Amino acid sequence: MRGGSGGPQPIPLMPYDAEWPIAFASLEREVRGIVGAEMVAIDHIGSTAVPGLCAKPKLDAVVVMASRTAVVEAAAALAAAGYLDHGDVHSNGLWLLTCLPGRYRVRRRLYACVVGTPAHEARLVFRDRLRTRPDAAAAYAALKRRLAVEFAGDVDGYTRAKGAFVEKLIRGAGALRYSAAALGA
Question: What is the domain extent for residue 155?
């Protein structure tokens, strides 16, 4: 995307929106209806799951299933419902599904995994650290704002550049087995 000056636009970050938890609750109901009884949990992750944190305007959620077979079946059911199935793009046990832009007010990105998947556990650790450590959330917000400009037009570079912060916060929580690379960050 190019701006009036012809240069790339910064990564879009929005101030926290109190509608995000409501949008997640709607997503949760929808997904439960699609994937059924094999779903163990659905977790709201990413910056929209952290009150007060700026975020790209998209919901990230992990659909936790009882077995690998259930993950494959859930991905097929979600694809039939209009999600695009990208498979395990980071080879970390998280199956990626996205929704076409414009279908919902807030974009959606789902991951599906088996209970106990380390990459999912690491994402929960990171989310929970940001929720309980205002200093970490403020530092992360400042980093995101700086990188949104520095990596204008390069979402992958923006995500990679956050990796060291993500890994440090996870490791600081005592979750030493996780790395930013395993998270896909």
Answer: 19-183
